[in-house]
Amino acid sequence: MPTPVAFAVLANAILGASSIYWALFQGVSPVALVGYRVIFSLLLLFLVLAWLGKFSAFIRRIQARDIRLHAAAAVLVAVNWGAFIWASISGAVLESGFGYLVAPVFAMALGSALFREKMSRDQSLALLVIVAVIALLIGSSGRLEHWIYFTIAVTWGGYTLLKKRAALSSLEGLFVETLVLSVVLLFGVALLFADSGGVDTLIQHPLIAVSGVVSVVPLVMFAVAARRLSSFTMGLLQFVLPTAQLVVSFWYFGQIAAPLTYLSFFVIWAVLFAVSWRGRGAATGG
Predict the structure, then answer these.
(1) Are 162 and 180 in contact (CB under 8 A)?
(2) Alpha carbons 284 and 286: distance in angstroms, whole number
(3) C-alpha angle 118/119/121, rounded to 5°?
(4) Quick one: which of 13, 101, 244, 259 has the most CB atoms within 10 Å?
(5) Is there a contact between 23 and 88 (Cβ–Cβ < 8 Å)?
(6) pLDDT beneath 70: ranges in the chain
């Protein structure tokens, strides 16, 4: 398995399964958890860049365009984190799964339009089938927190596209995004520690300190993959994330989805395998 593809699969699998981690912090507000996530991610990224001896060169090399792009990415990922963590704590894992199911479709379609990445007839047909299946699935799922999957889909799909335009390395770009979030949330973080108990919260929930690792590792792998793969390929591999969430929602949270949900996921993966197989056959002349 080529490295970018492996990174994309692992990143999406870890992000999908991380609902289990965030669900550990019942009683801590989602806003507080986003704050802790930003703080520990920034600390980890700074230490890694300093340890690699790349921090000084990175500071000299950064340009205004890089800051603007990653600032926009920071806003999208912060909103995405907030919605995802809220869903994890509230047990609305199916809704967040739907969001990450719609996100790759959004990224593939918009990526094709913005980056002029031409899709083959098979790919276009596959995209239409997937859109129809997702629309049917959402329409027949009864009462849902619609704002969750809509917010997650738009922010994660947009984040994916911005990462394709990044000139900085994966670590550097993520550091800028986290730094922007730290500055923006500076006042909020001060209130957060006063309001949420600060150190007391960390003592009660010591695993919050691992939030930097849980956040940074998959996002770095995701950024590496996004820069090297086409929007369509990246979109295909992003379906690993909602699939992982579907498994987690059943196995860990005890959310039993309607049979149509499992059938829909089966159809989507069958379509993806068919497109991948035909594409590989065409590439090898088979």
Answers:
(1) no
(2) 5
(3) 130
(4) 101
(5) yes
(6) 1-2, 93, 115, 117, 141-145, 186-200, 278-286
pTM of the model: 0.78
Q: Report the 10 Å Cβ neighbour count for 220.
A: 19
Reading the block at residue 256, the tokens are: 């039993």
Backbone angles phi, psi at 130, to 5 degrees: -65, -45
The angle at the Cα of 75, spanning 117 to 218, to the nearest 5 degrees, equals 70
Name residue, tokens 């957060």: 192
The C-alpha torsion from 117 through 154 and 132 to 143, rounded to 10°, is 170
pLDDT (tens digit, 9 = 90+) per residue, 105-130? 887 777 777 767 677 787 788 888 88
Identify which of 207, 168, 192 has the alpha carbon closest to the alpha carbon of residue 68.
168
Q: What is the DSSP string of 165-189?
A: T--S-HHHHHHHHHHHHHHHTHHHH
- Which residues lie below 8 Å from residue 190, measured CB to CB, with a gap of 6+? none
Q: What is the token pair recorded at 196? A: 């949420």
Q: What is the token pair recorded at 19?
A: 């609902």
